[in-house]
Amino acid sequence: MKPTIFFTAVMGAATLCLGACDKSYRNEQGSASSGAAASNQLNAFIAAHNRLLGSFGYTEQAAKYRKADVAHAATDGEFLVGAGMIDQGIEQLKAARALSGASAELEGAAEALIRSLTKVRAHLADLSPYYTSKAYLNDKLARGRKEDPQMLAELDAADADLKRFGEMLDRETLKRDTAAIEKLKADGDMLGYNRRLAMFRANGMIKHLVSSPAPDAALFARSDADAAIIDQAIAAAHAAAAKSDGKDPPELHFLSSMLGSYRTFKETRRSTHAEQMVASYNHAVEAASW
Prior knowledge:
Layout: H1 32-53, H2 58-68, H3 86-97, H4 104-132, H5 136-139, H6 142-186, H7 190-210, H8 217-243, H9 251-268, H10 271-287
């Protein structure tokens, strides 16, 4: 996977519960029960995906191995080689796969990802003692260099499977969440509609920025458009809340903070401001309740 302007792990950047939390949500066939089942499996896949992107997950462990550059490293180099918590991501994928309701394409992508991640985890776990104990000093990195091409090939395969799985997950989540948001609007629930619209746009904004190693003018223009919609949705949600109990939904504060960090990042291009933006979004995800 390409390096990003952020740290490799962006926890929460895909955790958006919209349609899944709507008890009356229906899928295209009009079945509330099958819609709920599909949403439950989708949520389980989202959680597994986040685990793989999170601290000590797949992306972090893969980045550490590649950074070691075994093929060109000297024996006094730094080798942070290990399987981390990749096994937890695999187990969450398996648990999600055991559910039903999502598309066959997404389930197939999950199966392929489980297979490639299992190979990566096993190989990294096998290599870990070699590097941790510094046994590579005894053979002058001979074993490490011999196995490096295979390890890199396994990481490349897992990267491709993770990208495919993520793209399919985004596609199905977009379809579900768009339907949930539009239902709230049709029902006249403007507070719920604007809350979820703001979160939905923030989710997309974060993903687009995170996926780019070097944001350009076009990406910032797209993000500016998202920011304008989020601003409007926050204001509308605030106005709707004032007419009910007068209490702002808790995520609105964090979304405003996210926009502030985004605008600062746009000016400075500093990674610390990008990280603050992601952190504020993640706090909004955690604070939101519906």
